[in-house]
UniProtKB/TrEMBL annotation:
<dbReference type="GO" id="GO:0010133">
    <property type="term" value="P:L-proline catabolic process to L-glutamate"/>
</dbReference>
<comment type="pathway">
    <text>Amino-acid degradation; L-proline degradation into L-glutamate; L-glutamate from L-proline: step 1/2.</text>
</comment>
<keyword id="KW-0274">FAD</keyword>
<keyword id="KW-0560">Oxidoreductase</keyword>
<feature type="binding site">
    <location>
        <position position="131"/>
    </location>
    <ligand>
        <name>FAD</name>
    </ligand>
</feature>
<protein>
    <recommendedName>
        <fullName>proline dehydrogenase</fullName>
        <ecNumber>1.5.5.2</ecNumber>
    </recommendedName>
</protein>
<feature type="binding site">
    <location>
        <position position="159"/>
    </location>
    <ligand>
        <name>FAD</name>
    </ligand>
</feature>
<keyword id="KW-0642">Proline metabolism</keyword>
<feature type="binding site">
    <location>
        <begin position="181"/>
        <end position="183"/>
    </location>
    <ligand>
        <name>FAD</name>
    </ligand>
</feature>
<feature type="binding site">
    <location>
        <position position="195"/>
    </location>
    <ligand>
        <name>FAD</name>
    </ligand>
</feature>
<dbReference type="InterPro" id="IPR008219">
    <property type="entry name" value="PRODH_bac_arc"/>
</dbReference>
<dbReference type="InterPro" id="IPR002872">
    <property type="entry name" value="Proline_DH_dom"/>
</dbReference>
<keyword id="KW-0547">Nucleotide-binding</keyword>
<dbReference type="GO" id="GO:0000166">
    <property type="term" value="F:nucleotide binding"/>
</dbReference>
<feature type="domain" description="Proline dehydrogenase">
    <location>
        <begin position="42"/>
        <end position="289"/>
    </location>
</feature>
<dbReference type="Pfam" id="PF01619">
    <property type="entry name" value="Pro_dh"/>
</dbReference>
<dbReference type="InterPro" id="IPR029041">
    <property type="entry name" value="FAD-linked_oxidoreductase-like"/>
</dbReference>
């Protein structure tokens, strides 16, 4: 957890972000970020599709504080949806509500999301609302419930390190949820601090949601959790069309290929854009293996 806290602090440093741009390629950022433009992201998705993998793309961007920035982010999301349709790729869209103005004005964020969901509905594309830190949790779920009254092609993520994760999962029966551990540093009053507890709760909320007959996206690189989920769905007779596995672009590619070869649906989370720094730092903080991965990239240059 010390590692996660350290990299969480680094992820919010504007000074380090500015300095890191020149080091991004050497640290391995280009291996886990699919370029800076929509076109580069679509080419990456096209290659993933050719390997039997589905995708979801996320235009990286944080710290939106002005209405104009939020509207620009909305417009970029809509252009991304149009590109997904034009390229004919098997791909969803992932986004953060803060990038659409949640911290600026709730109604602005809602209106931006309604515009995005209208376009996504027109093009038959699913939209994933990424979960952010605990301070935004209630606002995110409340806005999601409001949006769902108009559109069904949307679903949030659930973070298993939160004590309330099971309660929230049960309240969202029938919703397409992305189940994940969580990448932010949170207080012990709201979040588990030990990996075994986080892992156990991830398996718990996955099973709860599947047994409720709800679509479940299992987002993990942990092969032990994946194996337990595979055993659970087999023993419980869970239909194949009720779940999928999800992994990050550039990580555990051999495991992604193995799951596809075994007949499982696998979706790769594909981030792109110029604002890669915060995302990259959080990935390094999640697992010690990720740091090794980055250092190998640095030393190989």
């Amino acid at each position: 957890m010390v590692t996660r806290k350290f990299f969480s602090v680094l992820s919010s440093s504007q000074f380090l972000e500015n300095k890191a741009r020149n080091w991004g390629p050497k640290l391995g950022a280009t291996t886990v970020i699919a370029g800076e433009t929509i076109e580069e992201a679509m080419e990456a998705v096209r290659k993933l599709n050719a390997q039997g993998l589905c995708a979801t793309v996320d235009h990286l961007g944080e710290f939106v504080h002005k209405k104009e920035e939020a509207v620009a982010s909305k417009d970029y999301c809509i252009r991304t949806l149009e590109a997904i349709d034009a390229y004919g790729v098997d791909c969803n869209l992932s986004l953060k509500l803060t990038s659409l103005g949640l911290d600026v004005d709730r109604n602005l964020c809602r209106d931006n999301m309604l515009d995005i969901l209208a376009k996504a509905d027109e093009l038959n594309i699913f939209v994933r609302i990424d979960m952010e830190d605990y301070a935004h949790l209630d606002a995110t779920l409340e806005l999601f419930q409001e949006l769902r009254r108009s559109y069904q092609n949307v679903g949030p993520a659930m973070q298993s390190y939160l004590h309330r994760a099971e309660q929230d999962t049960r309240s969202l029966k029938g919703v397409n949820l992305r189940m994940m551990k969580g990448a932010y540093k949170e207080s012990p009053s709201v979040a588990y601090q030990k990996k075994p507890e986080v892992d156990a709760n991830l398996l718990n909320i996955i099973k709860v949601h599947l047994l409720n007959g709800s679509y479940t996206a299992v987002a993990t690189h942990d092969h032990n959790i994946i194996e337990e989920v595979k055993t659970f769905v087999r023993e419980q007779g869970i239909p194949d069309d009720l779940y999928e596995f999800q992994m990050l672009y550039g990580f555990r590619t051999e495991l992604q290929a193995q799951l596809v070869n075994e007949g499982y649906k696998v979706r790769v989370y594909v981030p792109f854009g110029e604002d890669w720094y915060g995302y990259f730092m959080r990935r390094l903080g999640e697992r010690p293996q990720n740091i090794v991965f980055a250092m190998r990239g640095l030393l190989s240059k």
